[in-house]
């Protein structure tokens, strides 16, 4: 894992928290532990790739409530729920709300570490996709209104001639616009451009 | 009294009118008036003032000729002036009077002329100039007779009754409104006198009680009241008269003999010799709701008790689970730190320290549990197992009814007492009874029956048997039902019987199951008879 990443642990039981911290560190991962959902919300770093190991049963704000809160804050984070024995209904609820996975206590170290690795990998991918999308957005924002119009029609599969007719300008001007659009969007080909338009949708 | 005055004034008036007609010029000749004339004049003034003051119309009628004389007020009552009505005769009256009333008036006059009535009095309508009918009280008396005994002159008055009639109409409408309100009220209504006789009853109460309105109006409160005796009711009414109002619950008997609960809100009004005005509400539904609530509470307490066992177990499990999880994590972390290229001994040492601490924590949980159980043991008292069975059956009453299970207790009345924990033994019994119910879920067409028998079967212990008429136990199940997490039920947890077994074992007794020769299973348990109770 080349990028710097962190594993958050939120559990109200001090000894479980400490043992998880140690176990995760033994795999060479950075860990930050929190005793409550409140502490976590105040102390985590939303910009770092991460995953969250979350106790489903906690006083005050429960694990499920923290999950909801993060969704509401639009902060995506893969969550691995830790559940006690036989808490299937809550686990199902957590999965339906978009949890990455859940582990029943007590769990094998390999299972835990494997799940953590997958979760962080997933987060990095998601973050990468989001960054890419943000870059494309930024580029498309640099288009003029006319260029955006032409871009949309090109992406819809229209020929220069048709676009010229629809917009009431000459084909030569359309060609100029297209060249500018390709350049601004960083597209190598028409196929590239269509792909970019798809992602912007 | 008034009538007498009228009679007198009528007589005098007859004279005065005669005077007026015949001697009108007299008034112009006041200077020459004699003493009699002066007296007559004063008398006339006085009468005119009275008539004016009472605001009544007057009439004089020569029955033989039909000639009439009316005063201004007579005409005014029907919106005219005398000039407008001129020339007047008895026809004028007949023209303005309502045809129906005219007929009645004619009949009354005739009776008066015959001597059946001392005077004539009739309320009748007259056509007002505006087209409306106005009510007048028409009164009069024959003042003189012809020589052959026929009525000759009659004098009378018209009193405008419109205002009174309107007031009466308003009153009538208001009464009708009240009556309608009472009749359509959701609550029953009564008005009774101080003897408890029903004077007024509405439809709602009639429907509630099954008696017709006529029947009810001939009844007294004690005819309906179930809880209070007639004497009680009399006392209650005395109290009510003193305090003015009351609100209470009682029960009434319907015509068909059935009894229904009722809430009564009653007020005493000291009018017309004293009236009790009561609103009565059938509270059968409330009572049913109360019963349901009570049953739910009972069920909840039972569920609560069962839940306590489950919750207690879950909480113990959690408390031991946490340190076990930490121990496993730490041990695995230590393993990993040791097997690293450069073993991190410091981390391993810390991990081992934590493992020791978590192990002690788990042991502490178990020690607490032991203390808790000891305390339970300390709570043991001398118990009558028969009364505990009674308590459990009360708690399960609703459940058993819902499941259509008939319980027949067969309790040995001379059962010696045993030393034990009341709640624990309740739980065992509840468990066995509910298990029996579950075993009979599939039984149709046969009475679902649970028999509970207590007896002294061994010299030093009592035996309690809970026998069901269900499907019985499979041979391999008989030995395993008391094992943890063994269940033959779809939703069973497999903890009820193991818990029961631990409880009975802690009491120094035994528990076992056997199939009945005629179907179903019986669960038995024994409890030692304590020396104190022997």
Describe this entry's structure for a reader.
The complex is a heterodimer of chains A (201) and B (534). Chain A is of the alpha/beta class and 201 residues long. Chain A is 58% helix and 12% strand. Chain A folds into 2 domains: 6-136, Response regulator (Rossmann fold, 3-Layer(aba) Sandwich); 142-200, Winged helix-like DNA-binding domain superfamily/Winged helix DNA-binding domain (Arc Repressor Mutant, subunit A, Orthogonal Bundle), CATH 1.10.10.10. Chain A has helices at 14-25, 37-43, 63-72, 88-96, 109-141, 145-155, 160-167, 171-185, 190-200, and strands at residues 6-10, 31-34, 50-55, 79-83, 101-104. A 5-stranded parallel sheet of chain A has the order 2-1-3-4-5, sandwiched between helices. In chain A, strand 1 (6-10), helix 1 and strand 2 (31-34) form a beta-alpha-beta unit. In chain A, helix 6 packs across helix 8, helix 6 crosses helix 9 and helix 7 (160-167) packs across helix 8 (171-185). The model of chain A has no long low-confidence stretch (mean pLDDT 88). Chain B folds into 4 domains: 2-159, Beta-Lactamase (2-Layer Sandwich), CATH 3.30.450; 185-282, PAS domain (Beta-Lactamase, 2-Layer Sandwich), CATH 3.30.450.20; 289-378, Signal transduction histidine kinase, dimerisation/phosphotransfer (DHp) domain (Helix Hairpins, Orthogonal Bundle), CATH 1.10.287; 382-533, Histidine kinase-like ATPase, C-terminal domain (Heat Shock Protein 90). Chain B is built from 18 helices and 17 strands. Chain B is α+β, with helices and mostly antiparallel strands. In chain B, helix 12 runs antiparallel to helix 13 (345-378) and helix 14 (385-395) crosses helix 16 (422-439). Helix content of chain B is 50%, strand content 23%. Classes of the chains: A alpha/beta (201), B alpha+beta (534). The interface between A and B is medium-sized, with 18 and 25 residues.
